[in-house]
């Protein structure tokens, strides 16, 4: 039999590939903690953040460009040339060079600069707001993944228990000591658990897709740790509400109002004349004296009713609209804050109730039903109902714990600070 000779470099290549892929494979099995997910999301240059920063840079450049004087104008011409085209025929013929510089009215240049700077600050604040939204959305998605991972585990555990009951009821029915109703009822509950398992898988996949938007599909596919992490405790509701005026949403609205203030001042500058200065030098040639000339040109805004007055009125309306927009945003933030705080408080109460009473009673009921069934004091459907009620209670407690932390994540968003 002819032996196969491998290339001399193949073992080394395989070793290098293994050494490169082994750490990556190990990293994929490491649990993804909530804080790690948040930091990863912030380290990624999300396009929705970068675009606002690019807009801010563009506005900053515009603030410089639009605050400069117009380019000077130069004109070269031959003046008073006779129809014979002989430049030496008439004494008035001259070669003339003129330079002209225009100046916008009043404080136009400074106001243009200030207006664009205000808009640039608004764009940077929009980037900060988007980062806060990414942090909030990352926390919400991670918590959803945690819930549906645990829900899937609980459903699988309950399914195994119901499968054992199905086998037991089928054996009893085969021996003549059980009923077909018990078998069919158990099989039905098993199918319903399969449906709940599929739904849990669907919700888990959706939550991972949401998290992948922030940190990438590879990181989002990592498992979550077995225990819920603590979240920073939010400030008191009064402090949160008072601090809303410093939230990026409101600060961005303030920047827009400032920009509109400058727009109103710019409109007022149109009542002042634009002006320009010019100077010229005329060469006549020969023994004739050269000429110099200088002058000032003014725009005279006489008919202001349909131009300057309307422009100023429009700028004032835009400013008022910006102020009303800020008021509306502040009211919306207060509404969302109060709703989130109410949810956070009531979910904590429900969570405590389930921990202190409902879960304990559900476990006791399931144990009592199992004991009664063994002693012939309870029927099989009652045993199944008790088992499923215990599962529902556990899933509800898990859901309340997650909802409570998600409401807390919303409250942390209203603080308006990056970690």
Gist of the model:
By secondary structure, the protein is α+β, with helices and mostly antiparallel strands.
Describe this structure in words.
It is found in: Cell outer membrane. Its main location: membrane. The protein has 419 residues and is an alpha+beta fold. It has one domain (32-81, 103-415): Outer membrane efflux proteins (OEP) (Up-down Bundle). It contains 10 helices and 4 strands. It has helices at residues 10-29, 34-43, 47-65, 108-175, 180-215, 217-220, 237-242, 248-269, 308-374, 380-415; strands spanning 73-79, 94-103, 275-283, 291-298. Helix 4 (108-175) runs antiparallel to helix 5 (180-215) and helix 4 (108-175) runs antiparallel to helix 8 (248-269). The chain is elongated and about 135 Å long. It starts with 9 loop residues before the first helix and ends with a helix.
């Amino acid at each position: 039999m002819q032996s196969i000779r491998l290339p001399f470099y193949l073992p080394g290549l395989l070793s290098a590939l293994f050494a490169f892929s082994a750490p990556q494979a190990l990293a994929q099995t490491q649990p993804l903690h909530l804080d790690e997910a948040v930091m990863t999301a912030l380290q990624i240059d999300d396009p929705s953040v970068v675009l606002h920063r690019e807009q801010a840079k563009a506005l900053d450049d515009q603030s410089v460009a639009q605050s400069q004087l117009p380019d000077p104008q130069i004109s070269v011409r031959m003046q008073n040339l006779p129809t014979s085209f002989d430049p030496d025929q008439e004494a008035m013929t001259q070669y003339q060079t003129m330079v002209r510089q225009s100046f916008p009215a009043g404080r136009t240049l400074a106001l243009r600069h200030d207006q664009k700077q205000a808009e640039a600050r608004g764009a940077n604040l929009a980037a900060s707001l988007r980062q806060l939204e990414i942090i909030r959305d990352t926390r919400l998605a991670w918590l959803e993944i945690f819930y549906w991972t645990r829900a899937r585990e609980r459903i699988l555990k309950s399914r195994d228990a119901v499968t054992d009951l199905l086998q037991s009821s089928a054996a009893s029915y085969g021996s003549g000591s059980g009923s077909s109703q018990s078998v069919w009822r158990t099989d039905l509950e098993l199918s319903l658990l399969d449906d709940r398992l599929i739904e849990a898988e669907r919700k888990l996949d959706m939550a991972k897709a949401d998290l992948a938007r922030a940190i990438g599909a590879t990181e989002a596919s990592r498992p979550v740790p077995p225990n819920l992490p603590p979240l920073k405790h939010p400030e008191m509701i009064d402090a949160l509400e008072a601090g809303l005026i410093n939230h990026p949403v409101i600060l961005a609205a303030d920047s827009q109002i400032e920009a509109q203030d400058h727009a109103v001042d710019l409109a007022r500058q149109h009542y002042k004349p634009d002006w320009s200065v010019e100077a010229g030098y005329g060469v006549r040639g020969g023994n004739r004296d050269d000429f110099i000339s200088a002058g000032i040109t003014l725009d005279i805004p006489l008919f202001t009713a349909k131009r300057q007055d309307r422009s100023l009125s429009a700028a004032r309306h835009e400013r008022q609209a910006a102020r009303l927009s800020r008021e509306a945003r502040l009211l919306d933030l207060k509404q969302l804050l109060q709703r989130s705080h109410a949810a956070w408080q009531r979910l904590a109460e429900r969570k405590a109730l389930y921990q202190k009473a409902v879960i304990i009673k559900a476990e006791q009921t399931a144990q009592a039903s199992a004991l009664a069934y063994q002693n012939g004091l309870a029927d099989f459907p009652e045993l199944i109902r008790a088992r499923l009620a215990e599962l529902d209670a556990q899933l509800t407690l898990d859901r309340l714990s997650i909802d409570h932390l998600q409401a807390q994540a919303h409250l942390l968003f209203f603080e308006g600070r990056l970690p």
